[in-house]
Amino acid sequence: MGRLFGRVTGLLCIVILLNACVTPKANVSLYHQLGGEPTIERIIDSFINEIGRHPTIIQYFKEANVMHFRTGFIRHMCALLDGPCKYTGDSMVQIHTGMDITTRDFNIVVELLITAMNEAGVSHVLQNQILARMAPLRSEIIKI
Ligand code: HEM
């Protein structure tokens, strides 16, 4: 009986531990789960490289100041993921108005960001939560 109890308890512990590994951590910000500023910087540097290699997406950035974009995107992402930064740049609508960004190109940019997150070793559970925070911005960026 004691042995059976021991086994059941052991099994329960394993289930609880596994659950802790796959369940999003409610009380820790996405920013901290990601590894803070250094990981965001790694993701954005990789993202900028991907943009630079993409024949269609690079066209949108012909006139852009890459360092300014880098700083702004890092700040914005940090704030979006509940990090300690405050994004003080222009709104998404102000920035992207007139670029005539298509849904197709928006989706390509998301793919480039996913590639960058994969390169930075971000788990898929975390990636999905980050993308869920960005998804509502679609209407502020596409064809405005
Ligand atoms: C969820 C998706 C997106 C987010 C969160 C986002 C966010 C931002 C932010 C924060 C900046 C400003 C950086 C700064 O302060 O200068 C920016 C600039 C820019 N974004 Fe986006 N963006 C998104 C999608 C896109 C897409 C799909 C395109 C084009 C296909 C695009 C093209 C640009 C360009 C060209 C700039 C630079 C503007 C300039 O400096 O002249 N963005 N974006």
Summarize the main sheet: none
Tally of helical runs: 9
Order of helices and strands: HHHHHHHHH
Secondary structure class reads mainly alpha
Q: Quaternary status of these chains?
A: single chain
Low-confidence stretches: none
Radius of gyration from CA coordinates: 20 Å
Strand content: under 5%
End-to-end separation in angstroms reads 69 Å
List the bound ligands.
protoporphyrin IX containing FE
Question: What gross morphology would you assign?
Answer: globular
Residue-averaged pLDDT, rounded?
Answer: 89
Percent helix range: 55-70%
| Number of separate strands | 0
Summary, kept brief:
This is Hemoglobin. The protein is 69% helix and 0% strand. The chain is mainly α and 144 residues long.
Please tell me about this protein's structure:
By secondary structure, the chain is mainly α. Helices cover 69% and strands 0% of the residues. It is built from nine helices and no strands. It is globular. The model has no long low-confidence stretch (mean pLDDT 89). The structure holds protoporphyrin IX containing FE (HEM).
